[in-house]
Amino acid sequence: MGKKALVTGGSDGIGKAAADRLAGAGANVIICARRTDHLRNAAEQISNGKTSKILPITCDVTKPEDIKNAVSEAIRLFGP
Fold this sequence. Notes:
- By secondary structure, the chain is an alpha/beta fold.
- Helices cover 49% and strands 20% of the residues.
- The mean pLDDT is 93.
């Protein structure tokens, strides 16, 4: 099984750049942020021309339940 990464703030700025770099290195990447529309756009841009899978998950990291759900979904789709 390959590398996996979870990036918070992945819809813009440094988080998006980090996710793009990780995906370019072959990792499957989960990007988390509060705005679903921005996440979807970022996932499309990051995945362009790459074989890595990009999973956008809406998540507010100030809410423990959101974090738990994001990690559970990431494990369900990408494995532990």
